[in-house]
Amino acid sequence: MTRRLAGEPLAWIVGTTEFCGLRVRVDPGVYVPRPQSELLAERAAARLPADGTALDLCCGSGAIAAVLRARRPAARVLAADADARAVACARANGVEAYEGDLFTPLPECRADVVVAVVPYVPTAELGLLQRDTLTFEAPLAYDGGPDGATLLRRVAAEAPAWLKPGGALLLELGDGQPELLDDELARAGFAELGVLTDEDGDVRGIEAVLAG
Q1: How far apart are CA 11 and CA 186, in angstroms?
Q2: pTM (predicted TM-score)
Q3: Number of domains in the chain
């Protein structure tokens, strides 16, 4: 009770959380998957062929990758995170996870889906997060640079080298951010762009399709 009253994430205390109906292990110090990411996970699963390949970047506990594995058991799902604790946790959740920056540690492949929940909070807005968030979780998990899109742009630029023609890139981001990526996505060869919103109409992500 003392730990919870101090603001420590419940998932760290009990060791698990529920995500898309799955029970996911979350070790102390590992980013806790948020309910708003469930929309991205389910959309990624819908885009992934039964025997396809998916990449989950900044995977944290491996929650999204675990959902993809559960929804598409015959698919190959690879994940990556720069945090060794996260990689160990993802592996404990049955995910094929690699330690390193974005695509760098992944074995060479061509994917049908790339999905990522990278840090996307503008640096100046970190102080607006709930007090408990940065008390226990590292700013690195949230800080997306001056406009929040630093890593989003990197993923958009690098994804075509990993995607099959017609493959989909799904990124979680916030309100007002989809338009920040318009030019980057166009230069990278993405021909279609859709904005993902929740039942309240709040922007939760984007889905872009690589031109064939």
Answers
A1: 39
A2: 0.93
A3: 1
